[in-house]
Amino acid sequence: MFIDIAKIYIKAGDGGHGSASFRREKYVPLGGPDGGDGGDGGSVIFKVDPGLRTLLDFKYKRKHVAERGEDGASQKMYGRAGKDLVIKVPPGTVIKEAESGKIIADLKEDGEQAVVARGGRGGKGNAKFATSTRQAPNFAQPGLPGEERNVVLELKLLADVGLVGFPNVGKSTMLSMVTGAKPKIANYHFTTLTPNLGVVDIKGIESFVLADIPGLIEGAHEGVGLGIDFLRHVERTRLLIHVIDVSGVEGRDPIDDFEKINDELKLYNEKLSKKPQIVVANKTDIAENEENYEKLKEYVEEKGMKIFKISAATNTGLRELMLYVGSILNTIEVEEEYTEDEMFVPEERKFTYDVEIDEEGVYVVSGSLVDRLLLQVNIYDSESIKYFHRTLERRGIIAKLKEMGIQDNDLVRMDDFEFEFLD
After folding, report:
1. Side-chain half-sphere of 263: how many Cα atoms within 13 Å?
2. What digits encode the pLDDT tens for the residues 60-71?
3. Known binder of ligand: residue 282?
4. Which major enzyme category is it (predicted)?
5. 380-409 confidence digits (pLDDT tens)
6. Is 190 labeled as ligand-binding?
7. Residue 135 region, left (φ>0) first, then alpha (ψ -120 to 50), else beta?
8. Would you say 237 is a known binding-site residue?
């Protein structure tokens, strides 16, 4: 089964907590703090595996969590770092942040990898908080949580040239004739249900990868037919071969077909409409009306495009077409796929706070800084309370409270912890 899109949840490992412990050994009655640091949490890393061709595995497993770091221990023993979680994906996988749709990573080359969720840093043990004036700190840092996010994986085939056109115009037959690919071929619409790749290797030109993109019909960009499922595979190609049936057997207007397919490319992604394009008039061996070809030829040449007259079924004109494609491929510059605005930039991890006065006149301090600080301190220990107060001063919370007009004996609330303010 060919699966080229999947949505999954990933979470990096949390950092281990630092230890708050003291030496308690025989003949060492006044042992100092010896709590070790917690280990860092494991990160979630995506890595290209050239042996994979589909995102099928992610259809069945949608939650991926890396290992957390171990907590620190006494005798200054550090916790073990959590193992990174390495998730293997096929070449050509684009990783997007689900909420914004922005690109986190685009993995193409064998072995290429990207850290998509970073593990949390381990907390410091109380041994790290000992100073000449604070010799018995009874507190330690908690570990930081690992990053977590929902991501969308999109597989975009790595092909140099893409075959586009309406169903049953001969794209699969053409692919089978010029490459070693063996796509399913039959005389009905939507024979091709998945993209097919083949390598064109003809003497006189450098080999290139050709992709048959199925399912394009009017309304494809909105999900009609199979189009929306496979239009993404056209995005990486440098050149498009637009295959058009000029036989007249199905009563189609080749110019109308040409315009409709190009409209779909433009509506899906403006960049696709600007890709170099070669027009191929196919099924000329069974043409009922030669005027179809002449009318199409005049129309596309007015647009500055080159047109080839072929019969994929009888292998007529294909060699000349492929030689021409191979000769111009290296002259086509590979454009940057993404702009800066399309790239995802993770927010810098900062501990923030907010101060408000509630209806009862209580000064309420909230935010990630408060949450972390309360996890760290022991409010029943005098040394810990001193550290707590100095942190409030150092982080500007005391200054903010004064700026808001706090007076001695006014009540301050931080989560479930309340205390009277004394300057």
Report:
1. 12
2. 899 999 999 999
3. yes
4. hydrolase
5. 777 778 888 888 998 899 999 999 998 988
6. yes
7. alpha
8. no
Is 311 annotated in some ligand binding site? yes
What is d(CA 282, CA 285) in angstroms, rounded to the nearest whole number? 8
Q: Confirm whether residue 212 is marked as ligand binding.
A: yes
165 annotated to a ligand binding site: yes
Residue 317 known to bind ligand: no
Instruction: With residue 267 as reference, give the H or E element that holds it.
Output: helix 254-268
Mind listing the domains of the chain with CATH numbers?
1-155 (2.70.210.12), 161-329 (3.40.50.300), 354-420 (3.30.300.350)
| Confidence band of 146 (pLDDT split at 50, 70, 90) | very high
Where does the pLDDT of residue 188 fall: very low under 50, low under 70, confident under 90, or very high at 90 and above?
A: very low
Exposure string of 315-344, with b = 16+ CB inside 10 Å and e = fewer, is eebbeebbeebbeebeeeeeeeeeeeeeeb
168 labelled ligand-binding? yes
- Ligand-binding annotation for 193, yes or no, is yes
Does the annotation list 220 as a binding residue? no
- The answer to whether 172 is annotated as binding is yes
- Residue 284 annotated as lining a ligand binding site: yes
In this structure, the number of other CB atoms found within 10 A of the CB of residue 169 comes to 27
344 is in an annotated binding site: no
On whether 119 is known to bind a ligand per the annotation, the reply is no
Write out pLDDT tens, residues 343-368.
Answer: 888 877 778 889 999 988 999 999 88
Query: Which stretch of 126-135, 179-188, 226-235 has the lowest confidence by average pLDDT?
Result: 179-188
One-letter amino acid of 14 = D
Q: Confirm if 296 and 256 have CB atoms less than 8 A apart.
A: no
Annotated ligand binding at 285? The verdict is yes
Residue 386 assigned as binding residue: no
Direct distance between the N- and C-terminal alpha carbons of the chain, in angstroms, rounded to an integer: 69
